[in-house]
Amino acid sequence: MGAPAxxxxxxxxxxxxxxxxxxKICTILGRTPTGEELGVFSAxxxxxxxxxxxxxxxxSLPTTGPHVLQGPGENAGVVDIGDxxxxxxxxxxxxxxxxxxxxxxxxxxxxxxxxxxxxMGARPIANLNSLRFGAIDHPRTPHLVRGVVSGIGGxxxxxxxxxxxxxxxxxxxxxxxxxxxxxxxxxxxxxxxFRAAASGVGNPxxxxxxxxxxxxxxxxxxxxxxxxxxxDEKRPTVQVGDPFTEKLLLxxxxxxxxxxxxxxxxxxxxxxxxxxxxxxxGRGGLGIEIDLDRVPQxxxxxxxxxxxxxxxxxxxxxxxxxxxEKDVKRIFEKWDLQAAVIGHVSDDGLFRARWHGNEVVRxxxxxxxxxxxxYRRPIEEPKNLNEMQELSLADVSEPPDCDDVLRxxxxxxxxxxRRWVYRQYDSLVRGHTVVGPGSDAAVLRVKGTRRGLAxxxxxxxxxxxxxxxxxxxxxxxxxxxxxxxxxxRPLALSDCLNFGNPEKPEVMWQFQQAVAGIRDACVALGxxxxxxxxxFYNETQGRSIPPxxxxxxxxxxxxxxxxxxxxxRRAGDIVALVGRTREELGxxxxxxxxxxxxxxxxxxxxLGFEKRLQGLVLEAAADGVLHSAHDVAEGGLAVALAxxxxxxxxxxxxxxxxxxxxxxxxxxxxxxQSRILVTFDRQNWxxxxxxxxxxxxxxxxxxxxxxxxxxxxxxxxxxVAELAEIWEDALERALRVVA
Amino acid sequence: MKWxxxxxxxxxxxxxxxxxxxxxxxxxxxALWHKDADLKGVDAVVVPGGFxxxxxxxxxxxxxxxxVMESVGRFAAEGGFVLGxxxxxxxxxxxxxxxxxxxxxxxxxxxxxRVHLRVENAATAFTRLCREREILEIPIxxxxxxxxxxDETLGELEARGQVLFxxxxxxxxxTPQANPNGSLGSIxxxxxxxxxxxxxxxxxxxxxDPAVGGCDGQKLFRxxxxxxxxxxxxxxxxxxxxxx
Amino acid sequence: xxxxxxxxxxxxxxxxQGKAVANALxxxxxxxxxDVRIGKYVEIRLGGSPSDVSARVRDICEKLLANQVIEDxxxxxxDDGVKPR
Amino acid sequence: xxxxxxxxxxxxxxxxQGKAVANALxxxxxxxxxDVRIGKYVEIRLGGSPSDVSARVRDICEKLLANQVIEDxxxxxxDDGVKPR
Lengths: 739, 244, 85, 85
Ligand SMILES: Nc1ncnc2c1ncn2[C@@H]1O[C@H](COP(=O)(O)OP(=O)(O)O)[C@@H](O)[C@H]1O
Ligand SMILES: [Mg+2]
What we know:
The complex is a heterotetramer, with 1 copy of chain A, 1 copy of chain B and 2 copies of chain C.
Chain A: H1 9-14, H2 19-29, H3 35-44, H4 47-50, H5 55-58, E1 68-70, E2 77-82, E3 85-93, H6 95-100, H7 102-118, E4 123-133, H8 141-159, E5 163-170, E6 179-189, E7 204-209, H9 219-222, H10 243-258, E8 262-267, H11 272-284, E9 287-291, H12 304-309, E10 315-320, H13 325-334, E11 339-346, E12 350-355, E13 358-364, H14 365-370, H15 385-389, H16 402-411, H17 419-422, E14 433-435, E15 442-445, E16 452-458, H18 461-466, H19 468-484, E17 489-498, H20 505-525, E18 529-535, E19 539-540, E20 543-544, E21 548-557, E22 574-578, H21 589-595, H22 607-622, E23 626-631, H23 636-646, E24 654-656, H24 664-669, E25 676-680, H25 685-694, E26 699-705, E27 709-712, E28 716-719, H26 720-728, H27 730-735
Parallel strand pairs in A: 4-5, 9-12, 17-18, 24-27
Antiparallel strand pairs in A: 1-2, 2-3, 3-6, 4-6, 7-10, 7-11, 8-10, 9-11, 12-13, 14-15, 15-16, 16-21, 17-21, 19-20, 22-25, 22-26, 23-25, 24-26, 27-28
Chain B: E1 2-7, H1 14-24, E2 28-33, E3 44-47, H2 67-77, E4 81-85, H3 87-94, E5 101-103, E6 111-119, E7 135-142, E8 146-148, H4 151-159, E9 163-168, E10 187-191, E11 197-200, H5 218-229
Chain C: E1 2-9, H1 16-27, E2 33-46, H2 50-65, E3 71-78
Antiparallel strand pairs in C: 1-2, 1-3
The structure holds adenosine-5'-diphosphate and magnesium ion.
Magnesium ion is lined by residues 75, 116, 267, 269 of chain A.
């Protein structure tokens, strides 16, 4: 692929640039761009890199707080966790590449987010991933699931970063457009955080890592274009990951950061060399000049255009202190990597690239961001919304046998055990994992301190489809709740906003509603947004995915030894339900699985109440009163109780009595929010009850842990072993289909 | 005593081994860089887990050519003690310091989970603090841990008590279901005939701390410490081994 | 019959395996090695009429053996026994 | 020159991948498939005098490309360009 000539408004259109954007480019340059410059603008102004449709909305998100050391705008967010340490984290999407080539797409997604984190000086210690696939019986689903899961494991395991949790859900809404969101958290001394702002005119610009090939040319624009039949044409742009080189790059970069050679460093992600140069120069208010002939190349005869826009993986761009080039090279050679000086920092505020002696790019850096297009796209509430939200319990037939319903739910792909997935991930390497995959949140110890970190990622896209605002509020609250039931105080979050085509008013409405929901929930819970990513155009042949604002949240435990998991621990413990059960079924898994309906308003939620509820449980956890805790989510109270038995180290059962204040199916399987199951020694019951009363939070002792059966009223009576039988291998069974 | 933990490009569990030996067991533990032939006078060498050289061709196939491995070969020939875990086991097999080879898991997928191991020979330098047929709980995490050797080799290994660990269920039975990767004879770890080189797929260094993964792994390290600190230079040969 | 299938990384597609092996060979003193590409070699023993066998094998390659996003394949069909070893 | 190396699992050695592929093919309706063996196909571009090239390549295979406990290898040496794709 060479530079398209002649460079005209038509060529711009082929690059996905509008006539107005073309005009802007000509004004900024005071001339028509070269083919290379057109490529640069089309990449930098793509939705993926410029956030042109989302920016106006994202501005409303709370991004600051006493513990926030770095909010949005850098490669990843940073929060203070005490003891002179900071947690660096971010979530990012790799949806389109993963649909085209599941293994490599997912693998390179993990590689990209790892670089975003270690480029800030942090040692990555944990990965999460959040996945959405089409209906489990869709012919393509098993192949995609196997590819994505083995790709995530293949990369993360090899690099030596533990994958400690995540999410996976199946919904026909993703049949033609899966979601693969990857999250990484790293640790750094708070006085050793690196940022990506160029400084020091004359300082050398150095290139490190893999050579540049013709990989993923225009990946950035691909991620910003809808799929259609000829997506196959886009296939050659799929990159292949090289986790071994990433591991070397990780170790070499961290070693370099211990030295005093480094000024700034930035990974080469979307739009490769171009975006890393422009972003670094832009953040420093300076210019960068590079010589493309000095860029290490994997193939003969690469054009300037290709070198500028290649998305070859495992590469970093860095700025060193003048005179320290040799020391930088020595460190990378130790790790069998090459480092090449390809240019220098300049004071002219220009991004300039020379190739075969000619200047092929000469762009003023500042306008590329300050004059980047910003769209306030039209917004319109979907016509069918009210109709979708209508649901009267009267026309939901009451099932004859709730025991049978429970078993059907436990076997359903969205509620059954995820073991088949996380068994393929190394969740142990480097020894931080106190609570691994399989509980509400993963808990990591912070070595050398008494502290711990809890991580989770959450989003119920069914709620978001029925009401994107409430759905997003619930996503944030559930993430926080998952941390709280692990004993951790929620600190901050990173969001990955996966939506359809922003040029469609209904999609833009969903986006605006979701961002508003995230904002309100973040303000109420005091959890700022410190990083994130937007993925638009998740749409195939006009059909867009359900709105999916993924929320990855991080919490802190002062005493990691006090952390909690969801499994029952001690026979004789009291089981108490904190929170209130309402008569609601909207958007529930039960309604979908048993009645085949996705409708109704999502569960009611009150942010003030949620905050108080979380505070209560957090206090009890900190006192060491609780033996286990689990939030009530998809599948309702009955499924939550079953999960407590199934996660119990000794597979303990329980005997539960519920006062029948409403229909049995609603009571057992409704998904009312702000509910948490806790267990504790009988003697602590009065203390907990009084505290709850003071906070005006309903709490009932609903039963006792013990035995080998789960009994709930006269509705349910099953041995835990039988439930395990149903629940454990359901996913593997469902996927055991020839791809 | 002094331990050395090898570090190859792509080693991942080297830090865990150093942590287990240094922080938990209070040993003098140093990292040994692959380009460095000097073993720094250690009493025992750990070849750690990970993906040395990416494990791109065959697991462990490339690491054996590094300068440090030449020294380890000599060290072993002189009776020095060498332990390989996971990728380290694969490397020792590829290097010919242990018999057999590790191939793709029967499931063809990577597997990370806790497994039960049965001590098959407690009369070795690596297991002397275990009871015969004691059951240990230790995690595995590998994609290619299926132990394979030809029948003759297997016969010898069994006859001489060189099989130190087998995958079993919680009751101690070596059932097919309890064999996570399809290893022949449910073999999880083997020792060389001389009794000074040992490799296993499970990760004892990930089972030394009650806060993360339990303590059963400590028994292995403590066994060798005990063996060496009593100054017993020649490892006691397996009971099943006829020779003196 | 036996079909011998060769699956190779597409031109231009990164081949981390080959790259790693080439580096290892250089370290081992095989300086004359310029480039290494690693693919799969698959032997399929199968019955059926020789006539349509090649169509079937192509089908097998496309459906299962080669990931055509990043790999090319080719194959030969011979009758058994003539496999040099 | 280019050396084409074929690394194949020894007879009697488990080949779980080959077995899985065979099963998958049966499930896909390729009933005529009796057996599948999966090995590696390595292309090495290298210089040096044609005379000793074959000795060098054998050396490469024995040292690195094949683990002779479980694998056999064979190779052909041709001059470039004739690489069918
Ligand atoms: N939805 C969002 N919420 C908050 N911050 C966001 C969001 N989307 C993007 N950002 C921030 O915008 C910056 C650019 O995002 P991105 O292009 O994904 O980073 P990178 O270029 O490192 O991949 C990052 O700092 C990211 O944290
Ligand atoms: Mg980045």
